[in-house]
Design brief:
With 340 residues, the protein is α+β, with helices and mostly antiparallel strands. The protein contains 13 helices and 15 strands. A hairpin with a 4-residue loop joins strand 10 (154-157) and strand 11. Helix 7 (237-249) packs across helix 8. It is globular, with a radius of gyration of 19 Å. It starts with a strand and ends with a strand.
Length: 340
């Protein structure tokens, strides 16, 4: 009989932060080794949980982009939601669409210059093809009380309306048994979430909306409050810094060909990389300024650091996460093995 090993966070308190539903992280290699389909894997895990559960199957061998356009290795390929052991047949399961490499795609989405330079030959996945899902707008799976939203990076208990954010680099570290930070999202990340890139089959939007330098929120000084109160599990900032550095070294320019998020702006300033301030809209500047990222901050002269120095000082350079604590993944999230 085949076995499936995965990582599970139980619903309830986790080191002082409230997790509103059970969360399962499954390595796609485990699914293939068990000789089962992703849907079968989700159904098997769901049967072990007597409550709402969000489930992600993560493929470490492909690439994706973060919401602000940084290309990274590994992403969720399949997502699901279940409750009391049952996964809704129509709304409980989604697969991410592959975006085949083409020069035309690179022209349409210039931040993908990172693809050939940093990850040649890797397959790219972001969000689902709208033609494959019933829910017209949100990239979400729902079953009972469980909601797994924004292509498996935000989960909610629909009854309590409590949420948790799971950015893709944090999930990468969970699969790798690396380092994560558990904390509250806070105002800076809340603003940063809005600084997205226009992508076809994106994680949040299925069509190319909100060009680089624009904000998807349009909430002015209130943008910092939108997600600030929500717990999150994110990657160690050294990992985030390393990925942003690779993006900028590939030729991406903040505000022009990669999103003007606080994290990207902070690393760019420390590297001495140009920030295209002229391409950042007044709406986006208003949100950035509300959390300290003013035009004066962007123009300020600072010591230029090497990539190695930035990675070593990432906790000082990259802002975000309130009341955060760093953990080795095995100390925070336990593995479970079931027979299929």
């Amino acid at each position: 009989m085949a076995k499936l090993t995965y990582k599970m966070i139980p619903e309830g308190m986790l080191e002082g932060k409230y997790v509103p539903l059970n969360i399962a992280f499954i390595d796609y290699r485990e699914v293939k080794a068990a000789g089962i389909t992703p849907r079968q894997a989700f159904e098997a895990v769901a049967k072990t949980v007597d409550g709402p559960v969000g489930m992600n199957i993560f493929d470490p061998d492909v690439v994706t982009t973060t919401s602000d356009g940084v290309m990274v290795e590994g992403t969720v390929r399949f997502m699901a939601a279940a409750d009391k052991g049952k996964m809704n047949h129509d709304f409980g399961y989604l697969e991410m669409a592959e975006m085949p490499y083409s020069e035309e795609l690179i022209k349409e989405e210039p931040h993908l210059i990172q693809w050939k330079k940093n990850y040649p030959g890797k397959r790219l996945f972001r969000g689902p093809d709208p033609a494959t899902k019933i829910i017209p707008v949100h990239n979400v799976c729902i079953s009972g009380r469980a909601s797994n939203n924004n292509s498996a990076t935000e989960m909610m208990n629909i009854v309590t309306m409590e949420e948790i954010l799971l950015p893709i680099l944090g999930q990468q570290q969970i699969i790798r048994n690396g380092k994560v930070v558990l904390g509250m999202t806070g105002g800076i990340i809340s603003v940063g979430i809005g600084m997205i890139m226009p992508e076809k089959f994106g994680r949040v939007f299925p069509t190319r909306q909100f060009p680089a330098g624009e904000t998807a929120h349009g909430s002015g000084p209130y943008a910092q409050t939108l997600k600030a109160h929500i717990p999150c599990i994110v990657a160690d900032k050294a990992v985030l810094a390393e990925n942003i550095i690779k993006c900028l070294e590939a030729g991406c320019i903040p505000g022009r060909t990669v999103g003007a998020s606080p994290a990207v702006l902070s690393v760019a300033r420390s590297m001495g990389v140009e920030i295209d301030m002229d391409n950042i809209t007044d709406r986006a500047f208003e949100e950035l300024a509300s959390v300290g990222f003013t035009k004066e901050w962007m123009k300020e002269k600072v010591d230029i650091l090497t990539p190695e120095e930035i990675i070593a000082k990432a906790d000082e350079i990259i802002p975000g996460v309130v009341d955060g604590t760093k953990y080795n993944v095995p100390d925070l999230i336990k593995e479970t093995t079931i027979e299929i």
